[in-house]
């Protein structure tokens, strides 16, 4: 059993500005202004940024838990942005330019939207996994030292994607473009056709995707962000303390230039007096000493990724809560606050996709290898002084 119908639920493509009971003080053109003016530059920038992220991480090599997680996040963010961009193209053709064709463009916009939802949920799951992983490794390293391996991280990401795909599969198979005959023009058009189970999925999605999952993900990411913030503050304070400096100063710095050092790779422990002294410290201070250099940058990158996730998704849950208590504030054409709902959700979607585009700046800031590979994409391959210094540091390590 299937139902052939024009778009009528969860789709801001119908003209409801003159519908009975619609709030008249917010016109249709006002509610769609943010998308019309701002979406395309941000979406194009987001797709370009995530393509660059994937290319750079492939050149670096996705051979550890952090790089494979950030590569997967860039891939999923690209999918999310691409399908949303495609949906906005059909939206503009239908709503702004009033294009009529054999295929109902509003129906295509509605069908494409669910692929965007799929990748968006997968991206949220990966961010939660990254935050929890790094929080556990920093807060309780002994217990989780060998838990988050490369293979387990890849498996977790694949499971997140498969779970989301299984959740949306009934929706993908329950709606399609079906032919309908227009008796006025004696023509046939492809319009939105759906199985009745879609209505059940929409009701479930309102609660699960609208409230339960966002609240859980935001709570976990917020908690992990607080833990990481405390650990970062402790690490920075310890590195700047007189105690840490005293450990380094008490060692004979002439040892660094000793003639006994023939192979710096085999004798690098002599150049790390801070690490040698750490065996005499308690565990918490040893952990703070180790939280430096590359590891510190990784923790900072994860921390700011979590903060960006929280900020860019800050309005999703409040909007759904208001919809529960104000029935007219929802995405049903003809509802009293429909245009207001479209305006608010458009602004929130703008923040969502802006957040996916800004991850590139986090990688540039906290990943030296990423910066070098990114520079190589747009500059000549001639080695610089910093490249030579980096290779020397790797040899010494």
Automatic annotation (TrEMBL):
Transmembrane segments: 36-54, 66-87, 149-169, 211-230, 296-318, 338-364
Keywords: Membrane, Transmembrane, Transmembrane helix
A cellular-component GO term for this protein: membrane
G-protein coupled receptors family 1 profile domain residues: 49-363
Family matches, as PROSITE patterns: G_PROTEIN_RECEP_F1_2 (PS50262)
Location in or out of the cell: Membrane
Main location: membrane
SUPFAM superfamilies in the cross-refs: Family A G protein-coupled receptor-like
Name by which UniProt lists this protein: G-protein coupled receptors family 1 profile domain-containing protein
């Amino acid at each position: 059993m299937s139902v052939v119908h024009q778009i009528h639920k969860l789709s801001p493509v119908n003209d409801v500005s003159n519908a009975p009971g619609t709030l008249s003080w917010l016109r249709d053109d006002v509610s769609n202004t943010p998308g019309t003016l701002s979406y395309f530059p941000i979406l194009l920038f987001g797709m370009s940024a995530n393509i660059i992220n994937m290319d750079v991480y492939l050149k670096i090599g996705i051979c550890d838990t952090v790089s494979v997680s950030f590569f997967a996040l860039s891939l999923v963010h690209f999918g999310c942005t691409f399908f949303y961009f495609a949906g906005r193209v059909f939206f503009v053709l239908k709503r702004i330019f009033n294009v009529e064709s054999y295929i109902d463009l509003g129906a295509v916009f509605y069908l494409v939207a669910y692929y965007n939802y799929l990748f968006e949920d997968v991206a949220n799951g990966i961010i939660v996994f990254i935050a929890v992983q790094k929080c556990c490794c920093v807060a309780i390293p002994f217990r989780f030292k060998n838990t988050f391996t490369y293979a387990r991280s890849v498996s977790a990401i694949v499971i997140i994607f498969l779970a989301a795909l299984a959740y949306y599969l009934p929706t993908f198979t329950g709606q399609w473009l079906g032919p309908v005959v227009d008796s006025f023009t004696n023509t046939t058009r492809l319009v939105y056709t759906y199985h009745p189970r879609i209505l059940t999925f929409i009701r479930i999605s309102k609660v699960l995707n609208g409230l339960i999952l966002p609240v859980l993900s935001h709570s976990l990411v917020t908690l992990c962000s607080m833990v990481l913030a405390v650990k970062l503050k402790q690490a920075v304070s310890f590195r700047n303390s007189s105690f840490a400096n005293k450990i380094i100063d008490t060692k004979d710095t002439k040892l660094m230039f000793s003639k006994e050092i023939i192979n710096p790779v085999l004798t690098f422990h002599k150049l790390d007096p801070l690490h040698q002294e750490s065996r005499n410290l308690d565990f918490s201070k040893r952990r703070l000493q180790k939280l430096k250099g590359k590891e510190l940058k990784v923790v900072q990158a994860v921390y700011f990724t979590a903060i960006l996730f929280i900020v860019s998704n800050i309005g999703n849950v409040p909007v759904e809560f208001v919809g529960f208590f104000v029935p007219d504030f929802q995405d049903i054409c003809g509802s009293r606050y429909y245009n207001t709902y479209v305006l608010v959700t458009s602004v929130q979607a703008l923040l969502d996709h802006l957040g996916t585009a800004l991850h590139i700046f986090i990688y540039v800031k906290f990943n030296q290898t990423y910066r070098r590979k990114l520079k190589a994409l747009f500059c000549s391959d001639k080695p610089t002084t910093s490249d030579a210094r980096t290779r020397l540091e790797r040899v010494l390590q």
